[in-house]
Each structure stands twice: as C-alpha cells, then as structure tokens.
Amino acid sequence: MFNVTFYIRRLHSICGIVPMGLFLLEHILTNAEAIGGPAAFNEAIGRIALIPHDIMLVIEIFGLAIPFLFHMLYGLYITLQAKNNPAQYGYVRNWQFALQRWTAIFLFVFLIIHVVDLRIFTKGGGTPISYELLDQMFNNAGWFIFYLVGMIAAIFHFCNGVTTLCMTWGIAKGPRIQTFISRVMMLVCLLLSLVTIAFMISYKMH
Amino acid sequence: MADQKTVHFIIERQDTPDSKPYTEEFLVPYRPALNVVAALMEIQKKPVTKDGKKTTPVVWECNCLEKVCGACMMVINGKARQACATLVDQISQPIRLAPARTFPVIRDLQIDRSVMFESLKRIQGWVEVDGSWEVNTAPIQDPNVAATAYEISHCMTCGCCLEACPNVGPQSDFIGPAPTVQSYLFNLNPLGKFDKEKRLNALMEKGGITSCGNSQNCVEVCPKDIKLTTYLAQLNRDVNKQALKNIFNK
Predict the structure, then answer these.
(1) Membrane-crossing residues (chain A) (predicted)?
(2) Does the pLDDT at position B18 exceed 90?
(3) Domain end point (choices B91, B111, B131)
(4) Of A160, B37, B134, B227, which sits most exposed with the smallest number of CB within 10 A?
C-alpha cells in the first residue's frame, strides 16, 4: 500500500511553510527596506544579488518554482473539492476555511502575473529590479491595489495555513490549543499586513 | 378556532430522485412544545397547503423521536439537525425545511444515507469478536479510554456533520467526519485495536482523513456533542505514525 494521496497531501502541507512561508517572510523583510527610501531598498536588492547567478537559478527553479507550482496546482484541486458554506454555517473557522480557498484562487492568478511580469519579462529581459522601477509601477493605482491585496491575501493564507497545519499534523489536538494557535497566527497576520501596508504606502511618501 | 395560532412552514419538496425541487408552504396549528416531526405529522394528517390547495403528504424519515436513531436529520432554517429534537418555540419562523442534499434525495425530505454505511465498511467499523467472556476474564479497559469510547459510540450516523462539512458532497470523495472518527472508536477497543493498522491505512487512502479541510463545522453541528475535531487531530497523529511505520518497518 502506497497511500499516494496521503504523501501528496502532507507534502502540500509542508511546501506551504518551507519554502513558501519562509520565502514570503523574506519577501516582506526585503520589501520593508523600502520604508528607508530608494537607497536602502536598492542596497537590500544588491545583497541578494551577491548570490552567484548560477546558484541563484538552481535555488529559484528547485527551491521556489517547483514547490510553488506543486502547491498551487494541487491546492487548486483541493479548492475545487469544497462547497464553501459560511453564509449557512457562519462559524469563525468556517469563514477562515472559505477565505483560505478564496485567497488561494486569487493568489493563483496573482502569483502567475507577478512572476511572469517581474521575474521572467522584466528581470529575465535584462532590466534589474529597483526602487525606481517599482515606484513607477505603483504610480498606477490598479497595480498598487493589485499588489497590496495580493500581499495581504498571501499573508492570511500563510498564517491560516500554519493554524490548519497544526491540526493536520496532529500537533494541536484539543479546542483550547487550536483556538490559541489560531488567535496568535491571526495576530501575526495583522502585524505582517501592517508592515506591508507601511512599505507600500512609503512609495507614495518618498 | 379562526384565530388559532399557527406555525408557518416552507418546505422544499421533490417528487422523485431526479425531478426538479419545488417549495410548498403549510400552516400547522400551534401547540406548546411542538417539534418539527410532530408538525410534519400534522401535515401528513391534513396535506393542504397554506393557500388551501390539496397536495400529497410530505415524505420524511423518523423512528425513535428522541434524538437517538438519527433518521430525521434534515436542513432546518439552513442548518443540519434532528427534526424530532427541534422545538418550534426555539427557532425563528417561517420554518424552512429542506432535504440534506449532501446525500441523494429519495423524495421530499427523505434521503439515502447508505453512503455512510459503505464508509464504515471501508474503515472496518467493527471488532472481530471471537467469543464472549466472564467478567473476570474479559480484557481490561482503562476507564478513561472507555469514557472516550462511550462518547464516540453515541454517533448515530445521522449525517449532520457530513451535511455541514464543505468538503463532503458530490464534488468530493471525502467519507466525512462521522465514519472517520468511528475508526478511532474501534481503535480504542481492547480487541479492535488489533486492526488499528488496517483502519489507519484505510484512512490514508483517497477520500480518507487527508480530505479534511479543518472547517470544523462538524463539531459545531454534532447533535451528540462528540468532540469530532479533537479525535480527527488524534487520528492525524496516528496516521502520521503509521506512515513512518509503513516507510521504515517494511
């Protein structure tokens, strides 16, 4: 007996934390440098660029692209298994369940547009990512809102994902600890969202 | 009698498993402590709609009338519950009744819940008994474990948890919270635990415990207050350990 479904589901669960969750945190930290202005942000990007291109490419393909695509495609399949019913059963956890799936669908589209635009066409086409480039993009209100919503959706999806991971792996068993973890993660969600809003708005300030 | 107090029902009906659903409204004479099953019995006695039109009696299932058998589970004002234990005084009117469409509808409010029986067979929801014992020779059971087993044994396969679960339905192959948690009951049994590995492996298959999405509606709607999510988390621990055994013991 191989129980393929079991291993794929568990792999899907781990992928959400490593590498995806860690990458999201790194993304927020690097982007938060924008609060310090163009020089600070460009310097943070410069630090990442110190990683040799060949090594970076291997990390990007095997550490990011493959796990991301796996999580996104299998996650889409999971999303299609649900008939969301928070209007009927309006419990907090059921709303979070539905939001996890709604954010998943939005992020599926968001991530494809984001990566194809900035990583493949812009950076892959030879234009380095810089504060000035993003500032220009965020001058368009549509892009600004699209990225802000995308970031907050990703943060919620990650934080709620940690909560459900603790249930799925049998780490948090009883309702007391499950509720505790859920509240802590929603607090983390709030804090990360505030940081994101701060660095996004800072583009308008400098 | 003209100004007698009545209870307003809006019932989703369906004549055959494949025909289109429609709604009919009924006024049932009020009496103290009236429950939904008793009101349906009144409609059965006098199948006349609110507008005075004669119709066929509404079909539903019930048996024990004391929240033990699970047969009268239906969607009442949007939520899955037992019709016999739902008092008219405690819910808002008009009272909307609908069949639990997670299951195939046979007629009106009557549904086919045999899928749960099939799921119980899948998870081996029984103990291979090889005889009975005198009290002093029976296998010893921890009374704390027995208390947990007693709680889970209250499950009457009514299907409330499956109806409320967003991951159970025609779009998914999830067997649902009730049959999944029953495997834990039999794993706790002093003799049933010998088949624990078989049950856990069944839960690791497609449609098993991995299909749980942690919406936790099951524990909210369970009419027997079984701590379903706690036992689901325990089973998640158990299948993880079983997975390690499967990898490293063979």
Answers:
(1) 55-80, 101-121, 141-172, 184-203
(2) yes
(3) B111
(4) B134
Q: Which of A81, A94, A178 sits opposite B172 (nearest CB)?
A: A81
Which chain B residue has the Cα nearest residue A182?
B214
For residue A143, what are the contacts with CB-CB under 8 A and spacing of at least 6?
A137
Distance from CA of B158 to the nearest CA of A (A): 18
Q: pLDDT for A126-172, tens place per residue?
A: 999 999 999 999 999 999 999 999 999 999 999 999 999 999 999 99
Spatial separation of the C-alpha atoms in residues A175 and A56, rounded to whole Å: 43
Q: Which of A4, A103, A166, A168 to mutate to test the interface with B (most CBs of B within 10 A)?
A: A168
Cα angle value A101/A184/A152 (rounded, 5°): 45
pLDDT tens readout for residues B227-245: 999 999 999 999 999 999 9
Query: What mean pLDDT is predicted for residues B15-37?
Result: 97
Q: Which domains does chain A have, with CATH numbers?
A: 4-82+92-205 (1.20.1300.10)
Q: In chain A, what residues touch B205 (CB-CB under 8 Å)?
A: 3, 5-6
Q: Tell me the residue range of the domain where B10 lies.
A: 6-111
Spatial CB neighbours of B64, under 8 Å, sequence gap ≥ 6: B71, B84
Residues in B touching A3 (Cβ below 8 Å):
201, 204-205, 243, 246
Q: Are B192 and B127 in contact (CB under 8 A)?
A: yes
